Amino acid sequence: MPVAPRRRGVLAALLGLVVLACAAAFPFAPVVQPEVRYDWGGPGAVPSALPLMPYQPVSLTAGTTCAAARALGEGTLLATTPAAPDPRAIPLEGLRMEVAGDALRVTTAGVELDPVPLPAGDCTVEFRSDTTATTLLLDDAPVVSRPGDLRPAVAAVLTDARDTSGLRVQLTADTRFQTTITPLKAAPAVVGVLALLAMVVVLARGERRHRVRVLPRGWWRPRPTDLVVAATLAVWWVSGPVTVDDGYIAGIVRDRGTSGFVGNVYRWLNAPEAPFSWFYDLYYAWSQVSAATVWMRLPSILLGLVTWALLSRCVVPRLLPRAGRGVAWLSALTFLAWWLPYTLGLRPEPWVAAGTVLVVVAVERAVALRRVTPLVLALSVAGVTTAVTPGGLMAFAPVLAGLVPVLRTLRRSGLGPVPLVLVLLAGPAAAVFLMVSDQSLAAMLEATRVRTLIGGGQPWYEEFDRYALLLTQDDLQGSLAKRTPVLLTILAAVVALWAAGRRIPAGPTRRIAVVFLLGLASMTATPTKWTQHFGDLAGIGAAVLLVGIVALGRRALAGRTTPWLAGLGALAVAGSLVLAGQNVWPFVSDWWALTWSTMPPFVAGIELAPVWLVAGLVVVAASLVVLAWRRSGGGTVRLPRWLPSPAAVTTVLLTAVVLLQVGSFARTGWQHRDSYTLLSDALSTARGAPCGLQERLSVETDPAAGLLPALPGPSALPPEPVDAGGTELPGIRARGTGDTAWFALDPTQRDRSLPVVVTVAGSLRPGDTLAAEFAGEDGEPLTRTALRPDGPVPRDTRLLAPEGATRVRLVVDVREPVDIPAVATLPRVPRLTPMDEVLRPGTEAILDWPVAFVFPCLTPAPLPLGTTALPQWRVAPPQADDSAGITYAPSYGGPFAAARTLVTEQRLATYLTGDPTRDAAQVYRWVPRQPLAAAVPHVTDRTVSGWAHTGRTRVPGLDPVG
């Protein structure tokens, strides 16, 4: 029997109170933190790699005997960072203990301490540093003391001393983020979740006045629209584009196992993603089956099917209860227009979109049935959705949009104010169990401080940048596909608010439109202003766009001339903005000349955007003239029959954009399946070869092996060594006027299967020339192609020889010297080895974030126990893309900044099967600048409270020293 209202309210309130108490206690509960100590020194100790992450240890002690210092004479007794790192690496300020005469000079974190005179006889000097003070001791007596944080950065333990018996270093790594949950922390989570479930059961039993169908009758039966949506999503799954952050998230997810927590492995000192990270844990579990691209993209497709089911079975019937088959097909079209460009891949948008639609369904259920239980479930889902990403905050918008009917339902519930408050707060509060599942409160606050300090976001009042990017023509954030749903749905939201109550249910229509507008408003709180975040609104946006189209249909607008013409005028402007975009996508998805990927859509050489605008405005103007003429004659004022409805125009535009997206990717994917596309990747995975781009790349392991032979003849340019990216090759310096000898082309270059490669660096003044000139057997030049150096970093230029060419030479015409003169290697043919032979599957490598997603068979270099690995390999994006530099920059908290100072990078260019001139990715060999042993940790686990902390992590250049 149903529980009596008063008892029901008391019991539900008590259970809600338990949930709130458990949620409040959960962040403070203890966690297990590894205590990692490194000891170095004594007889036989050798320089050892120890790149810490964060860069400073919790505490460090370094000691020496005076005998060891005197034995060295002059030089570096101990150092934690190299004195002369790779010039292209950003140095870190570490500890340096140097012997100078009869004194020991000590520098830490860039601060030089007072020198310590070395007395005669036996003595010891000790350096101690932690978060509160740094001290130098002579025979255990302090001689120099500095308050504040002067902890040095640590990349290695280095020494010039041959005898290390008098040296020792001991440090404790900072592992505050590498925590795991304890039974004492798990207990409130278990109790809280059980109490929440019990509270929902109590509420539901108390409101069970009569049986209510949860899902509409026949919801499980497939419909034709379901088949079309599922088929389109299936094609999109295997051939559609990557997002700009798929590699970023793939790197974070795949590191979860070695780090022990969800950390940002590319910046922010590997700070945890908490409190917005629970979906990464799901992706990590998913990746244990396979890290192949096609497998990792499947969850976003499944979420799309769930969202479509909710829209078609629950939302659309609520908005348009008398809808016919035409509306069903329109709903499929609007859903695809939103879902395709924004939600394929690893980003959180599909999770937020599905969660928000589920909240809408629950709120509408609560309003229709006048029950509290669906509202509690809605708030619980909203909390879980918010725990995915800051943009998930919009999941609370349906509750705000339906606030008046929701309050009316609450007043009629029979529960008192206090029980209502407790049960309504309990649902979203339970999300805390996901937000800090294995982190302490202190660690989460420190991670938030680090992210805020380093930055990377924008304030709320710069929200206009998102819309500016949406309308930027040559930016993938403003692509044609992304413009379409956003611009048209903003118009549709206005139309829905206007049309509510006119043949369309007023309450649900107004609420769904307000949810969309509140969602747009809530995006101002997101720290970044990328257009990809519009995908959070994919489900709601599809519903609003559908309502707008129906409200502007011929039947709905019968006899309404003003809204008809206003709609066409607005579509003329919005449609022209849509058609001014390009079909452009990130990284590998923009290869192979997608239809209209380099220019806006055109027909017969004429751009459609201005034609659409002019034609639309002319049609509206002509209609106004016709109406005015008929009105002046006293006749019936009717629109011309040939005039299309705004709904028809919108449907045509949406259909064209959806077909363009799916068709262009399906076409290029199939045409270039012998090279690399997402479709060829999926097909290879199905055949048991899941290694992605790696299987289609070859590596130039030795550039010197491919130098072209010189033909007999003079050379006006003397050869000199030139850096080709960590490897020196014969080359020239661009000065004066002249040319090299001719070089014979390789047969693979004559048939254009491989390019002529010249590596250039430096700069040229306007009017100066550095070029490659091709000729035939007779030596008469055929073509000349300019080589354009772009700064001090060596970059390859790849040139396909013209038909009939058999030789090539370099030509220089430089009249004025520059500070960094241009240099060029002599021409070569790349001698190639398949990449999966150079880096076999399972090889450990740093996978830079732009490319990590498409190299699933390589093992990401781990960040274990407060350190980073020192791998042999790095896989990087094309040379023109410098975005991966954050991972090696201390001011960004780059996790591999310390490791980078210990090595020299040797660049190995890669070549793509089927397109050898494309710079698809780069491989770098990391060569230690001196032999380094691996430091061995001593690990013990200890339990720490949720508020325990050991000072702050320090970001070089941003956190003050001392």
- How does the overall form come out from the CA principal axes? flat
- Which bin fits the share of residues in helices? 25-40%
Total helical elements:
27
- Going by helix content, strand content and strand pairing, the class is alpha+beta
Cα-to-Cα separation, first versus last residue: 68 Å
**What is the highest CATH level, the class of the domain at 38-172?**
Mainly Beta
Low-confidence region ranges: none
CATH architecture of the domain at 38-172: Sandwich
Oligomeric state as shown: single chain
- Computed CA radius of gyration, to the nearest angstrom: 33 Å
The name CATH uses for the topology of the domain at 38-172 is Jelly Rolls
Largest sheet: 8 strands, antiparallel
Biased composition (Pro residues): 711-721
InterPro entries: Arabino_trans_C, Arabino_trans_central, Arabino_trans_N, EmbABC_dom1
Organism: Pseudonocardia lutea
Function: Arabinosyl transferase responsible for the polymerization of arabinose into the arabinan of arabinogalactan.
How is this fold's topology laid out?
Blueprint (H helix, E strand, L loop, with lengths): L4 H21 L5 E11 L6 E2 L9 E7 H7 L2 E5 L15 E6 L2 E6 L2 E2 L3 E2 L6 E6 L3 E6 L2 E7 L8 E2 L9 E6 L7 E2 L1 H24 L17 H16 L6 H14 L18 H10 L5 H4 L1 H22 L5 H18 L6 H21 L3 H14 L10 H5 L1 H9 L5 H13 L2 H4 L5 H14 L9 H7 L9 H20 L6 H17 L15 H14 L9 H19 L22 E2 L2 E2 H25 L13 H26 L6 H9 L10 E4 L19 E4 L4 E6 L2 E4 L3 E2 L2 H4 L5 E7 L6 E7 L5 E6 L4 E9 L7 E8 L8 E3 L6 E3 H4 L5 E4 L11 E2 L12 E4 L20 H4 L2 E10 L9 E7 L4 E2 L2 E8 L18
Parallel strand pairs: 2-34, 29-30, 29-31
Antiparallel strand pairs: 1-13, 1-14, 1-35, 2-12, 3-9, 3-13, 4-5, 5-6, 6-7, 6-8, 9-10, 10-11, 15-16, 17-28, 17-32, 18-19, 19-27, 20-26, 21-26, 22-25, 22-27, 23-24, 23-26, 31-33, 32-33
Helix pairs in contact: 1-3, 1-14, 4-8, 4-9, 4-23, 5-6, 8-9, 8-10, 9-18, 9-20, 9-23, 10-11, 11-14, 18-19, 18-20, 18-21, 18-23, 19-20, 20-23, 21-22, 21-23
Protein name: Arabinosyltransferase domain-containing protein
InterPro entries: Arabino_trans_C (IPR032731), Arabino_trans_central (IPR007680), Arabino_trans_N (IPR040920), EmbABC_dom1 (IPR027451)
Family: Belongs to the emb family.
